[in-house]
Amino acid sequence: MPIILDRCCEKCSHSQAEPCPMAIECLLDGPLCHESPACSEARNTWKSKVQRSGLSQPVIFAGAGTCGLGAGAGSTIQAIREFLDTRSIPCTIVEVGCIGLCAVEPIVDIMLPGRARVSFAGVTHDRVCALLESMLERGEVPEDMALCQFTGTGETWKGVPLFSEHPFFGPQTRWVLENCGTMNPESLEEYLAAGGYRAFAVTLRTRTPESTCDIVEESGLRGRGGGGFPAGRKWRFALNTPSGSKYVICNADEGDPGAFMDRAVIEGDPHKLIEGIAIASYAVGANKAYIYIRAEYPLAIQRLRKALEQAENQGILGTNIFDSGFDLNIVIKMGAGAFVCGEETALIHSIEGHRGMPSPKPPFPAVSGLFGKPTVINNVETLANVPGILNNGPGWFRSAGTENSPGTKVFALSGKITNTGLIEVAMGTPIHDILFSMGGGIPDGKAFKAVQIGGPSGGCIPDGHTDLRIDYESLGEFGAMMGSGGLVVMDEDTCMVDVAKFFMDFIQRESCGKCIPCREGTRRLLEILNAITRGYRDETPEQALERFRGIVNLERLGQVIRKTSLCGLGQTAPNPVLSTLRWFRDEYEAHIFERKCPAGVCTGLLTFSIDEDACRGCTLCAGKCPTGAVKGARKSPHYIVTSECIGCGACLEVCPFDAVRVH
Amino acid sequence: MMKLTINGKTVEARNGETILEAARKIGLDIPTLCHMEGLAPTGTCRVCVVEDRKTGKLIPSCSYPAAEGMEIATHSNQAVAARKTIIELLLASHPDDCLYCPGNGTCVLQRYAQELGVRQRSYSGARNRINLDVSSPSIIRDPEKCILCGRCVRVCSEVQGVSAIDFTGRGSGAQVACAFDEGLNISSCVNCGQCVMVCPTGSLTERRDVERVMKALDDPEVTVVVQHAPAVSVSLAEEFGLKPGSDIVDKMNAAFRRMGFDSVFPTSFSADLTVMEEANELVQRVRNGGPFPMFTSCSPGWIKFLEEFHPEMLGNASTCKSPQQMMGAVIKRLWAPANNLDPRKVFSVSIMPCTAKKFEAARPEMGGDTQDVDAVLTTRELAELIRIFGIDIAMLEGEPADSPFGDRSSAGKLFGASGGVMEAAARTAFHMLTGENLAELKLDEVRGLDEVKETTLLINGLELRVAVVSGLGNAGRLLKDIIAGKRTYHFVEVMSCPGGCINGGGQPYLTNPERVRARMQTLYEIDRNASLRVAHENPSIKALYRDFLEEPGSERAHHLLHTEYTAREVLR
Fold this sequence. Notes:
By secondary structure, chain A is of the alpha/beta class.
């Protein structure tokens, strides 16, 4: 499938051996070096074919990202094929990445010739038949399944909301995710036809590395991986450090529980990332770049591999790219799934073949990184922003977001929220809008309690503060952090001590074990949390004393871990405790002093009683009680002697009259 | 140069110097558990954090470069409290058995806990239970006492190039272990004991043989003979609070007798014997055209290193046994029969600055019906034995060693330092080839603590290219260059430990570069002041050849004093 290498006529001199600097622009706007209506026409034909204008047969787009496949997209696609085969309907099926509304996957889009492309939600395999019969055979949109339709793709349908008006999609500013879920991620042609690699080609032809760094610096793009360090400045450090070889590393080791932005970008639009890496490499003078991606992302790796191969075959990567004299080789390096390998220096050691353990900074990687050479490490979302900035200029980038946090940010919504999935919004958007307008609020009419932002290293934002605008400064002032952009929503049924315990458990298991405060401190923090949520019935006086001593030490220990740990993982490790302690001290106190879990989550602290009015005296519970704590005569209301109860909950399970109450 | 203030005092620092280095220049001791002089900082222990007064942040002084205008408080309340918490955290997962611990008294963790005023157990909870590794003939590992400072891992990989141990596991389950959690015995460990020297706790120690020696001393049926290595008499003094670098060989002889050893011989005697055999082997190789380079074989860690990593080069190693094993063979196979003693009733003890010697003594090639050397004690174990016997060594009157192996040349004594074997062998090889002694016996080019030293010896128009290397990491790199043809030599001296036996893995804890230098200077001083400075003029050596061994390289000598090596399959 040669595209760029296809010559329109004898006058085109572009070839693998002697590449033309204008090849990409020529493909889109050409021919540039000669006048020829036939050659122009050939380009237009190619473009409209790739962009599916003037379809002769329907196209079905199936959301086949990891989230879609998890929701059953595999069976859906199979059911679609069977349907088309048995009825001999000529139709193209395109597998696309995730469009972001993971809650209603599998999502299938259908585009009939001349009509607008429509998205359908919840298309499980058993609903395929009804959908396709309606669309392909009757030409009717089943409105109960329709999500929205895309303008500019043909005549719109009545009764189907436009993408831009949809409550989930409408308020978003989709720059990084622009192609995710709509474009075929395995097609280089589609990416090229949409203007892909133009930013890279123009940069190679017209800009110096310095001016490229200038543009990125002017745009104000900040690292989207957590720290928020200005990307352009980081590049310039590396550019200005003299060295025979330099490296660019794309950090795709997305490890926060509840974060899946990078995966979606790679699965949905791998070429955008590759273009970003290529521009960054040129800007710092790196001829080799690594994509460090966790092995748990097999689909993303597969799509990246394919995209890299396509780019190499077309001379977009390799030696003397577009006759610029610039060489670039991009290598995929799979990580074994250690959370700490998301930390720059640990990631570098992992690539070097060593154990993934961080080392002290300074020296910073931009000065001495991979194999001791200047190395720029940016995360996926940061790099995916780069082509847009180079295409449209820093001013365009600053048109969204705030003064100090320009651009957009992708967030992964998960937990107790209606619309779980990915959204991309302008920086500075209030949390309230994200959760309650786009996110659709809390399901089942429950009350919102807090949202954890930034994964285990982040902090929580409680109810009453949802007017907080999400940007680096506001979050920092609030004592939270952007992190990579995971938003885990919690409702009234969530116990905040339990949440802190969950994150502490995660962190202490994922600590690399190198520095003492993180290795030993997180373990003790977790033990203290375990002690205050554990059942107290068999607690010895010594254990009770230990528990209290732990509580006394909790904050001090957290502060020492924060202030003395070696890397970002350790320095932020106590955040879940410190942050929940700050906003939900009353819940901690209820656990500690009253030995009660207000949310009813910590089972060890539950007490049971029997509702006299509901109890019929059937004796089932008394028979099941392993300690004989349930007393009472047959046919008269029973009661539980709390001091004998071990809180196992057996009575609750067996009661046929729902008479057992939990407190 | 830049200026910063530390605890209110202005300090000048060079570019690249760390805060720790700057602070040490003005006499401030900042505690650290992981810092290693000469190696890049890893920032592991965080005990060295100091307060940056301008930001209020705690920064690790061992890795943070000093910068112009910094205001540092090394012992602010915040820094000291953080340090104390870190020590308390370590203690929370540390066994409570200081009284039973081999590290008691030398343990750095114990010292810091004392100094920082840890008087109660602030944190308690689960502790890792990990089995002892007693598989090695030389080194015992107690992973429960390990604080994961990483010093052993670094010395093993970065200094020695062996990498027998590394970190495994994550979080609080992290530990230092051998590959596949196997024992040290089947790892690539060469038993050099450098890990023992750098361990700040009692997690790494030598295998203790003190009881076996005491049992033999107490047995009236058994004749106990002891030999002591040249590097022991110049370091033992430190164990008893005497000045580093003091040579107390005569007092040591007396102490041995007070403890009940029947005969006391210096290993320097058999070092002279090694010189004779090794110089002869070199001369033979020169005459036969190789194989070159010939490597010395005195250092058992180096021999195991070769057997593991470069078995293809084993033919280049001298076939000479080490001085310890030559002495062992001579005692059991010549001296015992000559004195009408059953070798099985002779218990041969050697005092070595080395843990690998324990492994060497146990090698199957080194004995027959009974091992040539029955027990090897390190310098530390000797000090322990002397304390058990209640001997105040400073009070003892010096005594000479026993005959017939009590005489030594100062060449044999030089074996204790890197370059010493080369110097001793060169003196005798020159004599063997020319019939004359070198005009200047001292070979300055191979002296000192440099990692690799090289020179060319001119003997009768023959140019002999020689090199001296210490530290197995350096040796490994040199060996690679030799294999690749980048360097060519006739003779290479290799000692496993940086600086040689004076810095061996069996030397007193708290050995530091100054002490190593003092020990080395003492050896040079002994050589300078000696009247007998070449092995071939040692009258006892001459007598040994006359009465038993005929001449260097004879069949008799070969049988008794030479050995062979085999390739080893290990995890590496």
